[in-house]
Write a structure and sequence with these properties.
Porin, disordered N terminus
Length: 274
C-alpha cells in the first residue's frame, strides 16, 4: 500500500513539473486585454495606463443603457494595481437616469505569466453614489472580492475563470406594510471564458457568468435569485506607435426566471505609457 502511494506521488510530481515547464514556454504575443463579463488576471504593466469604456444596452423587458468608465494604473510595479469605475445609467426606457454606485479597486498580482496559473485577487469598495430611491444604487457602502485566474492553454486559446462575493450591509427597503427595514444583501458570481486568439490582434470570445443573489422581498423575507449571462463577442487591437486601441462588441444573452433576453455590449480601450 505504501509503495503504491509513493508511486502515485511520484507521477503527480512528474505531471506537475511537466505542466509548470510547459506553462513557462513562450507563446507568440497576443492581446491580453479585459474581457467584458469575466475579469482577466493581468495587471497593468509598470508605466502603462488603460482607459476603458463599456456600454451595455438591454432590449427587453425595457430598453436600458448603462455606461461605465474604468481607469487602471500600476502602483510602483505590476504587482499592485489601482483602478476606479464610474458611470451613468438610463433605466426603464429612460424614465430614470443618473449616476450609479462607483467602485474603487485594488488588485494584487499574486502569480505571473511564468507560473502555472496567473492569479490576481481584487478587493473593491462600492461607494453609495447612486440614488437608491430611483434604483440607481444601494445606498450603503459595500464590499466586493473577486478572484480572477487566467491560463494560456495553447498558442491559440486562453482560459479565464472568476469566483467572487459582494456584500452590502444595511440596505434599506420598504415592506408591504410601508415600514422601512434594513437587510444585508449579498451575491456570489461564478464564471469563465474561452478566448480564441484568431490572430495576434483579433480575439473571438465566449463568456459565461452566473450570479446568485440574496435580497429581501416585499414581505421582508430573504430570497435567492439567479441570473446567467452567456456572451459571444470579439475584440481587435489597433496599434498606433505606443498607443493601443481595442474596440470590441458582444451580444450578451441573459437567462432568468425561465426567460431569455439578448442585449448589445460595446467596448473601447485606450492603453499607453505615462
Amino acid at each position: 500500500m505504501k509503495l503504491r502511494i509513493l508511486i502515485l506521488c511520484f507521477f503527480i510530481l512528474q505531471f506537475t513539473a511537466k505542466a509548470q515547464e510547459e506553462s513557462k514556454s513562450k507563446f507568440a504575443k497576443a492581446i491580453e486585454d479585459n474581457s467584458y463579463f469575466i475579469e482577466e488576471a493581468y495587471n497593468q504593466e509598470d508605466g502603462v495606463v488603460q482607459h476603458i469604456s463599456n456600454g451595455y444596452r438591454t432590449l427587453k423587458p425595457t430598453k436600458d443603457f448603462g455606461y461605465s468608465f474604468t481607469q487602471e494604473w500600476p502602483v510602483f510595479s505590476q504587482k499592485h494595481q489601482f483602478s476606479y469605475t464610474i458611470g451613468y445609467s438610463w433605466l426603464n426606457s429612460n424614465a430614470v437616469n443618473g449616476i450609479p454606485d462607483f467602485l474603487l479597486n485594488y488588485r494584487y498580482q499574486l502569480t505571473g505569466h511564468d507560473d502555472f496559473l496567473t492569479i490576481a485577487p481584487r478587493f473593491s469598495l462600492i461607494l453609495p453614489t447612486g440614488d437608491e430611491k430611483k434604483g440607481l444604487g444601494n445606498g450603503v457602502l459595500g464590499y466586493q472580492f473577486n478572484l480572477p485566474i487566467s491560463k494560456r492553454l495553447t498558442e491559440g486559446l486562453a482560459f479565464h475563470a472568476n469566483i467572487g462575493y459582494t456584500f452590502l450591509p444595511g440596505v434599506k427597503s420598504t415592506d408591504t406594510n410601508g415600514d422601512e427595514v434594513k437587510n444585508t444583501n449579498s451575491s456570489i458570481n461564478l464564471g469563465g471564458s474561452l478566448i480564441w486568439l484568431a490572430t495576434a490582434k483579433l480575439n473571438i470570445m465566449l463568456e459565461g457568468v452566473h450570479y446568485i443573489s440574496r435580497e429581501a422581498n416585499a414581505s421582508n423575507k430573504m430570497e435567492n435569485s439567479q441570473l446567467t449571462i452567456i456572451s459571444p463577442g470579439f475584440r481587435y487591437a489597433i496599434d498606433v506607435k505606443s498607443l493601443q486601441i481595442v474596440p470590441g462588441f458582444a451580444v450578451p444573452i441573459t437567462f432568468q426566471d425561465g426567460k431569455s433576453n439578448a442585449g448589445l455590449f460595446f467596448y473601447l480601450s485606450f492603453e499607453h505609457p505615462f
